[in-house]
Structure formats: structure tokens, C-alpha cells
Amino acid sequence: MPTHYSLGLIGYPLEHSLSPVMHKAALRTTGLTGSYSLFLIPPLPEGKPLLLKLFERFRHGELQGLNVTIPHKEIVLPLLDDLTPTARSIGAVNALYRDSGYLVGDNTDARGFQTDLATLPLTGEKKAIVLGAGGAARAVVYVLLQEGWQVHVASRRADQAARLADTLSDHATNGAGCATASLLDAISLRERLSKCSLIVNATPAGMSPHICDSPWPTNLPFPKDACLYDLIYNPAETSFMRFARASGLPSRNGLGMLVEQAALSFELWTGQTVSRDAILSAIPDTYQYESRREV
Ligand code: NAP
Questions:
Q1: Which helix (H) or strand (E) holds 95?
Q2: CB count, 10 Å around CB of 78?
Q3: Catalytic annotation, pick one of 24, 48, 73, 127
Q4: Mean pLDDT in the chain?
Q5: Distance from the alpha carbon of residue 138 to the mean position of ligand 1, in angstroms
Q6: Which uninterrupted H or E stretch holds 261?
Q7: What is this structure's pTM?
Q8: What is the rounded radius of gyration, in angstroms, for the C-alpha atoms of the chain?
Q9: Above 60 in pLDDT, residue 295?
């Protein structure tokens, strides 16, 4: 067991990340010694030399764990030595660990979302719309398909949504799940609304500082019994969630998923189970207030 855990996060930008606060709380509560650093790596190809250097340090044992965030979750795959079956199926990673000198990519976003999904006030048929088709959307769609949902993926580049639906449809279980795809616009979404019980925002639209943005087309009403889940947690209540509240629908932000993926990453690196409450209570109240609200 290392005497000092050197952990960190690669992404761009990183200034508003809650990961240092969460992982420092995890170190404190488990009584382990360590640090959690931010590695600002510009998008590839510009950031590639920096990334390769960091990965070499990781392989040599200078680091014990790394999280991966926007914009690197998919693009780093070819630079890793191996992937867990979950990460391979999803095609995106958010947690890296070392195994016998090899750099392995895992995806704890999926289990993070799955844990929070189980707590949502869902009613009706298992029909979902997922907005966005990036790394986080891949984890969300994977979980929903595994749990027998019919999923429609909508993104502003229809080809990206189609690719996601194509590559993940194989993971549908129970014969019930399947994924379809379209452009993220009112015309395409209108015909998907019937019996839809869950809408997930997996785009950054509405994230601070662009808090007035929303991925949902203006003037398109939400399905009447849907629950809305926004992966964003900053601000605590996004425009998308505010529109849900105005329509009398329950909504949730991504804080629960964030805490769970962090706890799972920490467990992967240290082998220690960590209290989710200890992590949650280290996060400033401003992120927490609205996340607990349900209409
Ligand atoms: P990503 O790989 O960059 O993918 C983002 C997706 O959203 C892409 O399909 C992108 O399309 C689309 N998009 C970007 N801006 C948009 C806009 N203004 N309107 C409509 N679509 C837009 O990012 P990601 O890693 O999937 O993350 C997505 C969001 O989830 C971020 O806000 C991130 O913070 C959040 N997240 C939260 C958690 C959590 O634990 N709560 C975990 C992971 C991610 P283009 O490719 O055309 O830009």
C-alpha cells in the first residue's frame, strides 16, 4: 500500500472542478495520506505530448489514480494499455488506474448514473430521451439499455447520435431496450415524446457561466409524466430543471452521480470503501440545495 496517494484529474478547463474537494474528503475520512492535483491538458492534438508524459509517470508509479473529464474521455482510449469491459463497451473512460505497470481505463460514470437513476421518482414506461452524444451520454445510454429502457439519443450533430446508438444498441438487455437517434430539434423530438418518462441532459448546455442556455428546444412542451435529469451540477438548478419545475415535473441535477463516480474511483485506486455522505458534506451548500428538491 502506498504511503502517499498521488491522485488527480486531467481535463480542460478545470477551474470549477469539485473533484479535489471530494477526493480530499475521501482521503481524510479513510485516514489515507495523499494529494489530488489538477492537470490542465489542452484538447488533442495540442495536449498530446503533455498527456503522454503524464501517462509515462503514471506507468512508473508516480501516480496512483487519475480521473478524466471533458474533452478527453473518448480521445484518450488509444493511449491506454487496457480497458475494463465496461469502459470498452461504453467507449469512454473517466478513471484510470495502474495494474502491473499497465495503464487501465475504467468508467465509473456509468455506475454513478445507475445508482442515482435508482433513486429517481420514475413512473410509466421505460422510454427515455438522452440529449447529447458525448462521453457522458455514452455512459448514460449504456446503463439505460442494460436496464431495459428504450432510448432515443438526440444531438446537434445527428451523425454523432447515430454512431452512439449504433455502437451501444448491442448492450440492450431483456430484448426490450434499443436505441434510436436524431437531430436535437423540436421536429425530431416531438414525435418521441409519447410515453417518455425520463429525459436526461448529457450536454454542457446550461452549465455555469452559460446558465441561461438550455438544450431543450424552446416552446416544445415536456411529456406530462416525465422526470428530468441534468448531468450538470453547477448551477445546482439549471434552466432545463427550472423549466421542468415550471411544468410541475420532478427534476434532479448530476450531483448524486458525481459523488458516486468519485467514490467508485477512489475505491478503485485505494481499495477503501468511502462514505458517500462524507464526500457530499465536503461539497459547498450552493451545489446541494436544489439538487435535493423534487416537485
Ligand atoms: P462531451 O464529450 O464534450 O459531449 C458533449 C455533448 O453535448 C456532445 O454531443 C456535444 O455536441 C453536445 N453539446 C455541447 N454543447 C452543446 C450545446 N450548447 N447544445 C447542444 N448540445 C451540445 O462532454 P461529456 O463528457 O459527455 O459531458 C457532458 C456534460 O455532462 C457536461 O456538462 C459534464 O460536466 C456533465 N457530466 C456530469 C457528470 C456527473 O457526474 N454529474 C459526469 C460526466 C459528465 P458537439 O460534439 O457537437 O459539441
A1: strand 95-99
A2: 6
A3: 73
A4: 94
A5: 10
A6: helix 255-270
A7: 0.95
A8: 19
A9: no
